[in-house]
Amino acid sequence: MEKIKPEIRDTASVLKLLGDNTRLSIVGLVQNHECCVCEFVELLQMSQSSVSQHLRKLRDAGLVKEQRKGHWIFYSFNRQHPSAEMVEDILRHVPDQNEKLQQLERDGLRINCD
Amino acid sequence: MEKIKPEIRDTASVLKLLGDNTRLSIVGLVQNHECCVCEFVELLQMSQSSVSQHLRKLRDAGLVKEQRKGHWIFYSFNRQHPSAEMVEDILRHVPDQNEKLQQLERDGLRINCD
DNA sequence: ATTTTATATTAGCATATGCTTATATAATAA
DNA sequence: TTATTATATAAGCATATGCTAATATAAAAT
């Protein structure tokens, strides 16, 4: 029995969201790690406001989840999203960004609340 | 040895192109069939001008190829595109549209130059 | 050569997008 | 309470997008 496929409309709107450097990078980052806003600001070299607005779009679409931990709000990939599998398929075709997160860690800029 | 992955920028620009109902539908249609402009106009119920402009974007990006056959210009998916595999992965997540083409055939509106 | 047919191109317009700057909010620290 | 920190929101603006209407092009048919 085949899984239900989202309508073209829904898929197109997800692709539209991912069709932006910043948002595609964000989704690539949160696929395997939780990140907070200030980390995105550092990694993407963008203003806090701009990052925040991109995150809002991703959150409104349900592609990412947010969770407060003390000072910070952490974002993570929402594997429950109807297009989550497609997004993961897409991410297999772009270079992973773990190296950047490791660099952030070495620079002492990684936030860890565990 | 792993295949070279397009940069995030390049992937984002492909996704941006596909992040539109009309263009995603077109790419879905040409994945398995050659189609000419008037067929898209019929299938998508859009103006010829609008379809033509979408096709131009897809062609400029190299995602589709065009080939003249008599009266008509046929468009087909370009499997040589650096992101062709990703596009095929994406299309696996949307309902196929073969039924619509078959209906067109039954209506006697399918163009065939073979 | 003229007309017809299929497609492409252009201009114009309304709406969407992504950024910056400034300000608001909400949790923590002092 | 007040100040600080992390994040969100709003306003404004320049640019991008997708459509329509009108016109151009190019091959085919007459």
Describe this structure in words.
2 copies of one chain form a homodimer. Chain A has a single domain, classed as Arc Repressor Mutant, subunit A. The mean pLDDT of chain A is 93. The longest helix of chain A has 13 residues. Chain A has 114 residues and is an alpha+beta fold. In chain A, 52% of the residues lie in helices and 12% in strands. A 3-stranded antiparallel β-sheet of chain A has the order 1-3-2. The radius of gyration of chain A is 14 Å and the shape is globular. Chain A contains 6 helices and 3 strands, in the order ααβααββαα. The interface between A and B is medium-sized, with 28 and 28 residues. Chain A binds a DNA duplex (30 and 30 nucleotides) through α4.
Task: Give a quick set of tags describing it.
homodimer, 114 residues, alpha+beta, Arc Repressor Mutant, subunit A, three-stranded antiparallel β-sheet, 3 strands, globular, DNA-binding
Task: Please outline the major beta sheet of chain A.
Answer: 3 strands, antiparallel
Q: At the fourth CATH level, what is the homologous superfamily of chain A?
A: Winged helix-like DNA-binding domain superfamily/Winged helix DNA-binding domain
| Number of extended strands of chain A | 3
Mean pLDDT of chain A: 93
Helix content percent band of chain A: 40-55%
CATH fold group of chain A: Arc Repressor Mutant, subunit A
How many distinct domains of chain A? Answer: 1
Inertia-based shape of chain A: globular
